[in-house]
Amino acid sequence: MMNRIILLIVLLLNVCNVFAREYFVGGAGASDNNPGTSAQPFATIQKAASVAAAGDVVKIRSGTYRETIVPANSGSGGNPIIYQPDNGATVIVSGLNVISNDGWSVHNGNIYKKNIALPLNGLSSTITSNTTLMANQIFQNGVMQIQARWPNATSAEELLDREKLRLRRQTVSWSLSQIVDNGIPNIGWAGGIIYINGWYTSHTRTISSQSGNTLNYPVGFDDLRFLQNYYLTGKLGALDVAKEWHYEGGTLYFYQNGGGSPSGVIEYKARNYGFDLSNRSNINIVGLNFMGCEINGNGSTNDITIDGITAKYLNHNILQEGHDIVVHTALQTGFKLIGSNNVVKNSVFKYGASTGVWLGDKGRAENNLMSHFGYDGNYGSPIGLWGSGDNIKITRNTIHDVGRQCIDFGQYQNGTGHHLNTDIGYNDMYNFCMLSADGGATYAARYYDLRGTRIHHNWIHNSKAVHADRPYDVGLNGGIYYDMATGSGTINDHNVMWDNRQLDIMVNTAETQSLQLARGKAFVYNNTMVTLGGQTHGYCSYFNIRTEYFDLMRNNIFRHHVLLNYKEPSESYGDSRNSLMQNVDPQLAGGSAVNPTNIANPENYFQLKPGSPGINAGEVVPGITDGSVGAPDIGAYEYGGEKWIPGYKPVAQPAPVNTPPVVSITAPANNASVAQGTTISITSNATDADGTVTRVEF
User: Fold this and answer.
1) Tens digits of per-residue pLDDT, 604-636?
2) Are 491 and 453 in contact (CB under 8 A)?
3) Nearest-angstrom CA–CA distance, 52 and 42
4) CB neighbourhood size of 645 (10 A)
5) Which one, 248, 256, 337, 670, has least CB within 10 Å?
């Protein structure tokens, strides 16, 4: 009888999670030799992570924690381990170390120097551990400083400014292995690095020699279309303006803003990861700030929730080398939430050379603000879909100012990858393709199977792609871009797209018609596509078809041509019934010249005006036009219906988890006999919604 009672007590305690504990980190008297109580807190988050178990809460007090946290345990279903600020504290998990302000001496003018051991001498293209970086990175007062280069750039934002590169039209000549440019400063560039950007990718090469205005480097390109923009770095002579630095031979050279001996908080990147959650599950990270680091994970990182964090300067690299250069860096960077059922929400991500967040099977990104990613010019994006994860949901995010695409469907399972039933809805995506001439706000390629994927109720606008300088015109760019047969079986509805330079939706099957035919049509319903003329190839919908096979389009507003044959452009609209073509004015409120997020009452933008020919003129499409006011309308907004506005909405920091209940157990003394009918009570200070105290008796 006694054994049965003990077993029942143990089971009940586990169910009630009454053994959950609080651990405190930081503040007065903190030491890892302490027990981690409120009065005697731990000094490091790692110490708490080494003992925290399912249901425990780690409460962290204000401070900067320069460490990589590797939890010893996972949580369990319904009882995650939670890491959160203590009582509104400001907690920074940092990948940076401090450089002391002493020991600086004048090198030349406002350039100061100091002997220091930074993680790298030179550059790398591969991350092999937490402390093997791809490039050194220097900060002053929390702001990234720029590695000395020509032409100059003075901020992280300017790394995404195409005009801060040297452009083809500014050169005398440019071949596969040589540049002649009268603007090149003659400082001895041999041994330095040339970064070259063009078409849809970026590369670097080591400069072999310089002769006056001529640079030579090894041939590594097979097409001049890849050679459109460049900058030079890696030489001390390039350090000539404030906010620049250079490192070689164990000496750091720095020209701080305003000149003078370096002051304030100067830091260097020392670690890649703030947390390493590889092989861990059921962990919540709430309300923390990340600086110069990421969260690492693997395929066994499951059921993680990231809520209400900020993360800045996630990753940094310059060298663009590897087996597959377009994704080599992207696959090594970003918050790797690549197991299953991981969530990132209500968070702000800003600045990264490559990827922001990777999502795996059933992953979710909800209500995040993400900007300034992909300044290495390749396929890193704020959100990437990892491997062959299905049922991924990306909703109500604002994503802007990126080197190429805002959302990438994955590029590394050529012909075998899939992301079935992905949901991308109610996002605001703009200022993409800032460095690339070829891409889109969403981009998929390499024959990925995306059947069941739905892209809907998004604003997609203001592409920054440009055509390369003639005679090397390159690039297809637009809003939604399905390359290489990836659009088959997808549904694309209720999107509003404008100022996307070339086109609003592209479905490219020119290379893989048989695969496209086998998987089925792409479906395009109730979109408002108002990208107008004025740009080269300013088409609204570009279907790259070389057979008689066409995708199915209904209830769309097109403000320019619909091109359905790559080699023979025509005015044939294919299977696009109940749509307003370019010769019919849809009578919209607003237009494509103004970003509606910058005007009063943006909910009225792109609505149909009274008397519009699109009202009640659409076709019923089950699951798409449900809830129409009368007959379905044409376009993304139903006249008299919901005036939805997509994108991120700031939220308050998530409420802290309450103190775990304290439990008292009333039972006979140890080894005492228990007669049948004896009552054993378990009482907790946890209260129900009506304020009653929890009490269990048996």
Assistant:
1) 999 999 999 999 999 999 999 999 999 999 999
2) yes
3) 12
4) 15
5) 670
